[in-house]
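Bumping with the actual sequence this time:
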Amino acid sequence: MGRVKLTIEPGKARGKPRGRIKWGRVAAASFLLVGGISVIVLAVRFFFPPDASVPAEPVPPAAEITAPPSAPALEEEKIVIPLRSSLADLLKRRGFDNLEIHRIREAVKQVYDLGKIRAGQELRLASLPGGPWKRLEYDVDETQFLVVRNDGDGIEAEMKHVPLEIKTAFAFGVIEDSLIGALNKAGEEDSLALDIVERCFGWDIDFNTDLRKGDSFRIFVEKRYLDGRFAGYRDILAAEFVNEGRVFQAFRFTYPDTKVSDYFDENGGSRRKDFLRSPIKFRTPRITSRFSASRLHPIYKIYRPHYGVDYAAPVGTPVQATADGEVTFAGRDGAAGNTVKMRHKNSYQTAYLHLSGFGRGVRKGAVLKGGDIVGYIGSSGDSTGPHLDYRIYYHGSPVNPLGHKFKPADPLRKEFLEVYKKEVERLRVALEVPRISLTLFPALSFSF
């Protein structure tokens, strides 16, 4: 069979010829269609209104999400632990029975012994209103606190640490009557005065007797903040004290190899010496009698040697060991009254006479550090009033405590001298900040 070839001529098709779509007419038709439907709907509603007696079926509201009821707020009681109180005493007064107290102590003992709570510390007890206790907190010290929780799983305890922050600050002032008074006026606490004496200048200046009105100081110090609250001083980094025109400077240096820290002068000499200048722990005593080879005795009215220095102060004023050493005698010693005697290195001995009592642990054979309490001022023995008779012996012979020149401690190790000098320059600049800034901006305060 042969192939049939179908040919359609251009412009022709089967049936009627195809033409172009008339979009205008389509739009008009659509408009008329929609309009017509709307008219029909309106007409139906007009002639056949919905039955008013049959209410429209209500549309169910969207489901409301109801939050679970919030737990009632805990009621917290803060308790400052009184003297001679135990945890059991405090909890029994708040409705705890012996069994519950036993459960708490047993659950906590692996973390902390609640039998060691101390008077003056704070205890916080949180309970549901009219219900059981839920949390117990105890401030162990300034850096940590105990948290005890009473949950559905039983009693659990943990130790938490208070966030600690170290900031550097400046303190400076002029002496009017005492170092403590000047520091308090500058907004600082008494403990900073003790640090200045016991760490930096107590070997060169007797802060009880040598101070003069107009003396001045500058201190660059680290302050500790716990949870944002000031919590005391850490280290004095640099200090300067001007006493009767004499300038004393102290710079803290930590050896890179041993990590041991000490205070040195600008040339690397140690600020420490064999003995502190004063045996009185910062209570501004009065010198009533000095070292003398012939003094009129106030009781016997005869002239005889007085180989010590008398410091008059109120009964109970602390008396400190002026150097490291061993106690060789602690007890009653005739006319000297209650007395402590100590032996120190380099053939020195000291004696503390007329005490009202002895420091804790002070007895023959006890080893004390310079600054430790040996006893308290009294008027025991032959005495006309409360005072301390302080004596120093060198190779068994008495020496004048106010005039004797003591040997300094070891200077800075030579291999670190260059490093130290660079540190001194940095700290000297820091000490100058208050002076320069106060000149330019008198209202400034310094804490970084």
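The tokens above came from a reply further down the thread. The helical segments are 23-47, 87-92, 98-108, 179-185, 190-201, 417-440.
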